[in-house]
């Protein structure tokens, strides 16, 4: 599915809808150039979850945990890492549900992961010359996004 996002507010609104709709255990793999809207999308997810803390990119901390919402939000940014370095972080603890409560895991620069967690929702954000954004959503594994986001295209038509 591809959605046109005319501005940052639409990107944030998409995130808010994801935050309201997705269940605990959802993994979002975010891809896009610098400035494509990955963090804006995650800020919207936080709004949809009812998180009041400011959501900022964890570029230097690698992971920010927000536990006050409907379910936890684990926001990761792998921009500064090489793929081999991501393996040593044991990020799977965030989606395994063993050491931490299940929540929504949003991973910026997910293409740096050696192994892609499944099931997951892949969101590729692109910008155009007119400064508009486009989001392409695909699933990896058995992630049934339509069960949670079935009317999403109509909201961005």
TrEMBL record:
Q: Which GO terms describe its biological process?
A: tRNA threonylcarbamoyladenosine modification
List the GO molecular function terms. Answer: ATP binding; metal ion binding; transferase activity
Subcellular location(s): the record lists: Cytoplasm
Keywords noted in UniProt:
ATP-binding, Cytoplasm, Magnesium, Metal-binding, Nucleotide-binding, Transferase, tRNA processing
Q: Which GO terms describe its cellular component?
A: cytoplasm
Please give the family membership noted in the entry: Belongs to the TsaE family.
- What protein is this chain from? tRNA threonylcarbamoyladenosine biosynthesis protein TsaE
Taxonomic lineage of this organism? Answer: Bacteria, Bacillati, Cyanobacteriota, Cyanophyceae, Oculatellales
- Gene that encodes the chain: tsaE
